[in-house]
């Protein structure tokens, strides 16, 4: 079955599945900005393996009409334990898990930084709103999802993700539970943040 991309509104970017059109070979020219070696290593060494065993779906974002990789991102199905400290998450009955979509990785390509700096938009924000959110909307129309969530690597990134509409959870026992039982080694000590899907669909 051929990949059918969700219709997006970005005037500058296209997106494709990592495993289509020889994109995995383009990753040799991908280095995550801000010395995010973990993300670079993931896309260069592990991403294709995770694709083949259906663990995640990885995507490349290209400058429209070119093979220039601007960014990469990863999405996967997931769930988080329920907490009443989260906002705008109402349920028709008691639940223990909140269904969601995890934004596992997102990073701009340092090797295309000169091009990115010349763009008329903020590339990361444009990719999130014009590509990732429409994908989340499409998935949420097909299956039940309540949150889009991620794990910010540090407080500076957490503040940045707040400008995208993500919230941390001010509940220390909840965050300790996530760290102990939910987060993998890759995201240990990261800051959990979420965005209600209803805010994406109703924007």
The rounded distance between the terminal residues' Cα atoms is: 31 Å
Helical percentage:
25-40%
Strand percentage lies at: 25-35%
What is the topology, as strand order, of the major beta sheet?
1-2-3-4-5-7-6
Class from secondary-structure proportions: alpha+beta
Number of helices: 7
Give the number of DSSP strands.
7
- Dominant shape: globular
Mean of residue pLDDT values: 88
Unreliably modeled segments: none
Largest sheet: 7 strands, mixed
Features:
single chain; 203 residues; alpha+beta; 7-stranded mixed sheet; 7 helices; 34% helix; globular
Walk me through the structure.
The protein is of the alpha+beta class and 203 residues long. It has helices at 23-26, 37-52, 113-118, 123-142, 155-162, 172-182, 197-201, and strands at residues 13-17, 57-63, 69-81, 97-108, 147-152, 167-168, 191-196. A 7-stranded mixed β-sheet has the order 1-2-3-4-5-7-6, with helices on both faces. Strand 2 (57-63) and strand 3 (69-81) form a beta hairpin. The longest helix has 20 residues, at 123-142.
